[in-house]
TrEMBL record, chain A:
Gene3D superfamilies: 1.20.1280.50, Ribonuclease Inhibitor. Keywords: Auxin signaling pathway, Developmental protein, Nucleus, Ubl conjugation pathway. Pfam families: F-box_5 (PF18511), LRR_6 (PF13516), Transp_inhibit (PF18791). It comes from Gossypium harknessii. GO terms for biological process: auxin-activated signaling pathway; pollen maturation; SCF-dependent proteasomal ubiquitin-dependent protein catabolic process. Transmembrane segments: none annotated. Its main location: nucleus. Pathway: Protein modification; protein ubiquitination. Residues 4-45 form the F-box domain. The keyword Glycoprotein does not apply. This is F-box domain-containing protein. GO terms for molecular function: auxin binding.
UniProtKB/TrEMBL annotation, chain B:
Its main location: nucleus. The lineage of its organism: Eukaryota, Viridiplantae, Streptophyta, Embryophyta, Tracheophyta. GO terms for biological process: auxin-activated signaling pathway; regulation of DNA-templated transcription. Pfam families: AUX_IAA. The keyword Nucleus applies. Belongs to the Aux/IAA family. Residues 62-90 are annotated as: Disordered. It comes from Gossypium harknessii. The keyword Transcription applies. InterPro entries: AUX/IAA_dom, AUX_IAA, PB1-like. Aux/IAA proteins are short-lived transcriptional factors that function as repressors of early auxin response genes at low auxin concentrations. This is Auxin-responsive protein.
Length: 572, 180
């Protein structure tokens, strides 16, 4: 029932921006559903296979911004074959055919071909923003098409994509008339870029606020760019290697000092540690510092840099910072909310340098800490209990002990109690990743206490089906569950199949579930796609229901089986 | 600090567990749940079982050696893990783009100076020229012969001659081969 004309309601809905809230609004009544769908401009689709582009277009004719995610999260760690799926082309094709005035496209873990990029660049006159995160399948030729054809492009943001770099002159493809750039991030590209074209592009982009360069951009070019763009707010440095006594370095110092608006600093893809003092003048204003690609920066030079960063809210760093360095962070960065410590030695040759001590120091010194990703040598229950007490505000807590079944080295106990303390204390916890030696007990705690938990990642943990059952029964808000190498079998999988319809997806690999169990889920729940990924093609020869399934990925969907699955994926 | 890995315990017999151990308690985690200390590794697939042997590429230049009156550079095999170590697919959970990027950045070599009590390690990626590298040797080894900070002529001014042993085991003077 409406006491107001539609236009008034529409105006009110304009103030409702979160996806969750708009979804809720659309469920109130038919009239609100209609008004909401015509006024909706931004849509987020967490699993591209849960809906079809045609239905999206039919429901939201006013769509301007689309976010799509493709492959499951474990694809980041090579657990999903490259051609499994997540192709964006059908989406772009469908949108291009329709009358949708697409302006923004944000993709994560999708396969993006040059063909799609070209079609995208030619189909939407007002296209403004392209953000690609962890995508693959395209080359710099596709980027050239975007540069050449999107006349009002404001944002081109490439984060951690696998791009085939043809070393072409894609940067030169931005026409002289393109002056609208606000954000340009090509740090993940590995090839040379036309430095002259880059300088000219930056010169004619007065609104440029965010610029992240790749490794091929040397220091002298950086200096020139900064002179032309002192208004930058976010800077990603490519190469930072030069003789500290050179003329260029002096010029750089001057250029950096003019950049009083920089709040976010990243890159240092190549770094000479003795040149860091040029950066000190802007450190005091930084709220985000990402040194996770700079292993050359460690020890005293790194600590000195951090000591200048008193306003830091987010810090991404390598573990060569060491516990001592984290102590410096704890003393200096009182505003810290997010900390990510990445392994500098991902193959575990024993050089990783942070332990539970560093984490405890940060938790004590940084009470605002709410988001953590921590790769470490070891962890103790005592440390986790202390951290839980110091920082009850965790929203994201992701701990990765490099040896995934390592117990508490002091007591030799599993880490159940430690993680239990975390979930009990952090009542707002939404995301949790576990590691270390863990029994069913930790899952009991999670089921009991983690009421807001939306995403849980489990590896090499638990003793029995009970573990998985505790979680499925207890975590009412669970949306994504990903499990590898745990002894969970059909009993756990089949206990409450209706639960999976309330979740986005479930991934189970190297567990104890059988083909028969998976078939059973598929049979009972037609609203789910149950995919078996069988790269070794074992299933072809042995269709025995008792056969254990290597990789299973199930997700809710409104559009049934997808048609683009490769040979080795069976959808039950 | 020496860390001992817990030995794999045998499958625990369910019937031998006391009622206490299986009772669900509402106590705070961390408040001493009675622990018999027995860690059950029974049903789960152990980490060891899932290990997949992966070959990690060895680094480029191999320059071993050391000699009197010289500063020598020894390659330590950048990025090479200990030989016995095996690896699991997808662990640790780091994006491959990140793994690749970090591996490329490390080009550690050992540097030994005759008379110095211990060796140092430097990351060749951090330097853009021989000059910088040699300057850093000054810092690392506290050479007594530092008259000027700028190294004009390496051979004439320094008492210590920088040399390296290349993969053919020949002694080479630093500076002949272009830096890159």
């Amino acid at each position: 029932m409406n006491y107001f004309p539609d236009e008034v309601l529409e105006h009110v809905f304009d103030f409702i921006t979160s996806h969750k809230d708009r979804n809720s609004v659309s469920l109130v009544c038919k009239s609100w559903h209609k008004i909401e769908r015509y006024s909706r401009q931004r849509v987020f689709i967490g699993n591209c296979y849960s809906i079809s582009p045609e239905r999206l277009i039919a429901r939201f004719p006013g769509l301007k911004s689309l976010t799509l995610k493709g492959k499951p999260h474990f694809a980041d760690f090579n657990l999903v074959p490259h051609d499994w799926g997540g192709f964006v082309y059908p989406w772009i094709k469908a949108l291009a055919k329709s009358r949708i005035g697409l302006e923004e496209l944000r993709l994560k873990r999708m396969v993006v071909s040059d063909e799609s990029l070209e079609l995208l660049s030619k189909s939407f006159v007002n296209f403004k923003s392209l953000v690609l995160v962890s995508c693959e399948g395209f080359t710099t030729d596709g980027l050239a098409a975007i540069a050449a054809n999107c006349r009002f492009l404001r944002e081109l943001d490439l984060q951690e994509n696998e791009v085939d770099d043809h070393r072409g002159h894609w940067l030169s493809c931005f026409p002289e008339s393109c002056t609208s750039l606000i954000s340009l991030n090509f740090a993940c590209l590995r090839g040379e870029v036309n430095l002259g074209a880059l300088e000219r592009l930056v010169s004619r982009s007065p609104n440029l606020k965010s610029l992240r360069l790749n490794r091929a951009v040397p220091l002298d070019t950086l200096q020139k760019l900064l002179m032309r763009a002192p208004q930058l707010v976010d800077l990603g440095i490519g190469s930072y290697v030069h003789d500290p006594f050179s003329e260029v370095y002096n010029k750089l110092k001057i250029a950096i000092q003019r950049c009083k608006s920089i709040r976010s600093l990243s890159g240092f893809l190549e770094v000479a540690p003795h040149c860091m003092s040029a950066i000190y003048p802007i450190c005091g204003n930084l709220t985000f510092l990402n040194l996770s690609y700079a292993p050359g920066l460690h020890g005293n030079k790194l600590m000195k840099l951090i000591q200048h960063c008193r306003k830091l809210q987010r810090l991404w760093i390598l573990d060569c910072i060491g516990d001592k360095g984290l102590g410096v962070v704890a003393l200096t960065c009182k505003e810290l909310q997010e900390l990510r410590v990445f392994p500098s030695d991902p193959f575990g040759a024993g050089n990783a340098a942070v332990t539970e001590e560093g984490l405890v120091l940060v938790s004590a010194g940084c009470p605002k800490l709410n988001s953590l990703l921590y790769f470490c040598q070891q962890m103790t229950n005592a440390a986790l209990i202390t951290v839980a007490k110091n920082c009850p505000n965790f929203i994201r807590f992701r701990l990765c002990i490099l040896d995934p079944i390592k117990p508490d080295p002091v007591t030799n106990q599993p880490l159940d109690e430690g993680f239990g303390a975390i979930v009990q204390s952090c009542k707002g916890l939404k995301r949790l990743s576990l590691s270390g030696l863990l029994t069913d007990q930790v899952f009991l705690y999670i089921g009991m206490y983690a009421e807001q938990l939306e995403m849980l990642s489990i590896a090499f943990a638990a003793d029995s089906d009970k573990g998985m059952l505790y979680v499925l029964n207890g975590c009412k808000k669970l949306r994504k569950l990903e499990i590898r190498d745990c002894p969970f079998g059909d009993a756990a999988l089949l206990e409450d199949v209706g639960k999976y319809e309330t979740m986005r997806s479930l991934w189970m690999s190297s567990c104890e579930v059988t083909l028969g169990g998976c078939k059973s889920v598929a049979e009972k729940m037609p609203s789910l796609n149950v995919e078996i990924i069988d790269e070794c093609e074992q299933m072809e020869f042995n269709l025995d229901d008792k056969q254990k399934v290597d990789k299973m990925y199930l997700y809710r969907t409104l559009v049934g089986h997808r048609k683009d699955a490769p040979e080795y994926v069976s959808i039950l | 600090m020496v860390l001992k890995e817990e030995p794999k315990s045998p499958e625990s017999d369910v019937t031998s567990m006391s009622f206490e151990e299986t009772k669900l308690t509402l106590g705070l985690p961390g408040e001493g749940r009675s622990s018999a200390g027995a860690v059950k590794c029974s049903a789960k697939r152990g980490f060891v079982e899932t290990v997949v042997d992966l070959k990690v590429g060895s680094s480029g230049n191999c320059m071993p050696g050391g000699r009197d009156d010289t500063t020598t550079v020894i390659d330590s095999g950048a990025g090479k893990p200990p030989p016995a170590k095996e690896q699991v697919v997808g662990w640790p959970p780091v994006r491959s783009s990140r793994k690749k990027a970090i591996n490329e950045r490390f080009r550690y070599v050992k540097v030994a100076m005759d008379g110095a009590p211990f060796l140092r390690k430097v990351n060749l990626q951090c330097y853009s020229s021989y000059n910088q590298l040699l300057k850093d040797f000054d810092n690392l080894f506290d050479c007594s012969n530092k008259e000027e900070s700028k190294l004009m002529d390496v051979v004439k001014r320094m008492e210590y001659v920088p040399t390296y042993e290349d993969k053919d085991n020949d002694w080479m003077l630093v500076g002949d081969v272009p830096w890159k």
